Amino acid sequence: MTSCEEAETEETVTCLHMTFYHPCQEDKMMFRCLNFHKREQVRAGEMAMFGRDSNICRYNLMDSRVSRIQFSLQFYRKLNNSEFCFEIKNMSKKTKLTVDHTELGYLNKIDLPWKCIICFGDYQILTEMQEGESMDYFETHLHLAQMPLLQERCLPSLQPVPESGIFPSLFLSQDKSPTEIDENESY
């Protein structure tokens, strides 16, 4: 047997990619304690806590308007299933947490969708889960966005044609003039 045949199969690790944005991030530097662009291992039994208290939270947000513990993430495996998930819990008594369009009050928790945006105050965090097999730990991989995340995810709403017959510039593509659409026609 060759050494390649004898080597153990490498186990893949679930990774939670998190992209952070705040409109004042360059001025206030609230993300200065986060380790961007480096994967971090977290033991499966640990809660990943986010907030401003560095004694409790693994991920510190340096902003007095952030709660000591803003929210927590718990890694778990579904019952009678091999699928791994994350559960998010709002730990702030003062600030509601929004996961996509679901609002969480204090101590409310839900399963984190495989891709979603978490919002509280002016903070926006895009999370994307990359599946793995390891039951011992998961990884986090943090990124910093230069543009608001909500604008990247939201599609423009369909608006009626104004009386002037001119579409908002958002709907115009290059080299095309506006066209009138009957209100009974679908897009």
UniProtKB/TrEMBL annotation:
One Pfam family of this chain: FHA
Main location: cytoplasm
Keywords of this entry: Cytoplasm, Immunity, Innate immunity
UniProt-annotated location(s): Cytoplasm
InterPro entries per record: FHA_dom, SMAD_FHA_dom_sf, TIFA
Matching PANTHER family: TRAF-INTERACTING PROTEIN WITH FHA DOMAIN-CONTAINING PROTEIN A (PTHR31266:SF2), TRAF-INTERACTING PROTEIN WITH FHA DOMAIN-CONTAINING PROTEIN A FAMILY MEMBER (PTHR31266)
Protein name: TRAF-interacting protein with FHA domain-containing protein A
Source organism per UniProt: Apteryx mantelli (North Island brown kiwi)
Gene name as annotated: TIFA
